Amino acid sequence: MQTLSQEKCDDPINDISLNAANGCIDVFGSMICITVNFKADGIVILTSNSGNQMITEKQTYTVNNESNSVTICDDQQNCDTLLVIDGTLTSLPDTDPMTGCERTIILKKQ
After folding, report:
1. Residue 1 near residue 95 (C-beta atoms within 8 A)
2. pLDDT at 71
3. φ, ψ (nearest 5 deg) of residue 104
């Protein structure tokens, strides 16, 4: 992970923009690390680590060269599309219904 931003929150005090060091971001004292490992066979391994909780998920991905995007889907066909911009993968803003915050994550090859 390179950047995590959260903006347009119902309470502006929750708006943040953080840059990562070694793929991890310190969010109010909690370290959040995300790694994404794309395999040649269309499988992607997502690993997130926040404090003492580590989650690893095996999902599928497809590449759309026309739109410069990658779509990642879980087993239930819940999908997220990431845009390829200047060698990074940028998530489309995702709104948290509890806080109204729009979150965007930028991933960069380490």
Report:
1. no
2. 94
3. -130, 135
